[in-house]
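Cont'd.
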Amino acid sequence: AQSVTQPDIHITVSEGASLELRCNYSYGATPYLFWYVQSPGQGLQLLLKYFSGDTLVQGIKGFEAEFKRSQSSFNLRKPSVHWSDAAEYFCAVVIAGNMLTFGGGTRLMVKP
Amino acid sequence: GAGVSQSPRYKVAKRGQDVALRCDPISGHVSLFWYQQALGQGPEFLTYFQNEAQLDKSGLPSDRFFAERPEGSVSTLKIQRTQQEDSAVYLCASSLDGRSGNTIYFGEGSWLTVV
């Protein structure tokens, strides 16, 4: 079945440490790929998106993501995490039209 | 408006009660989506409008769920005879047009608790 998988439900990192959140998809073709962040009680905010071209995509708030076709992955990274980054992160894909299919999310906690 | 606006933000309904959730998309946005997000899960697609036309309602979980967008702007999601499993956050989103990859902007959601 077609799906988006975020293997890590929870991740805890220390403030200032680097971060990588994993996302894998299982579709025949390369979809459009997105990362969204959701703070408690808030809606979803787009961090970055990949359509084609350069496989390393820069986003807002210092985040970046790398598309790896061979691994069907689109992992999100940040070199130095800030306490304000604590939130839920969702990977999403668009196959056709513009309907988003989301992964289950990864909750990020930041230790002082 | 500046963003996607949803009301009410919070709703507690007794089991069996009907509820209506409103969405005001960004002005001029053609596409409008409704998603359901259960606690601890990712959002799941419910339905999609392009202007006033409901082009996809494949995600609506039962015939108790109904959505409309009669004038191609404001949309209402109605849930009849609510049940406990309907408890979730209902997210509305809009985008400029129907092209793949357009940025989709989300509202803050309507939190529904059925008791």
